[in-house]
Amino acid sequence: MEILKQIYYYLDYTLQFLMWLVIGRVAAQMVIRNPNNVIRNMFIRFTEPLYNLIKKIFPFSRVPEEKRQTTWGVLDGFVPIILILGIYIILRPLIRIIVGVIIVNFK
Q: Which domain holds residue 19?
């Protein structure tokens, strides 16, 4: 049972880290305007696979071409909001429920 708790904590911390990477990307894109900045590119490189996944699942989250240069375009539309809500409302409770059910059933 201790291994399940360790797996749960590992997944929980990983999801929290991903959420902070998304927040860091939004902050870096709003503050740092230089597209060649190392910190900004690091956030983009780490979060781009998540952003692409959300854009495939929710096509309405894409920013239209005419709004690319606005603040809404910098934020990539609804993608950060969907990611943060998905992590906190769906993934973290789901992992907690699954681990709880496994621990209760295998005692």
A: 2-105
Judge whether 16 and 100 are in contact, CB under 8 Å. Answer: no
Mean pLDDT, residues 79-85: 88
pTM for this model (two decimals): 0.79
Give yes or no for residue 38 having a pLDDT over 90: yes
Which sign, positive or negative, has the C-alpha torsion 30, 32, 33, 39? negative
State percent of the chain over pLDDT 90. 27
Query: What total of structural domains would you count in the chain?
Result: 1
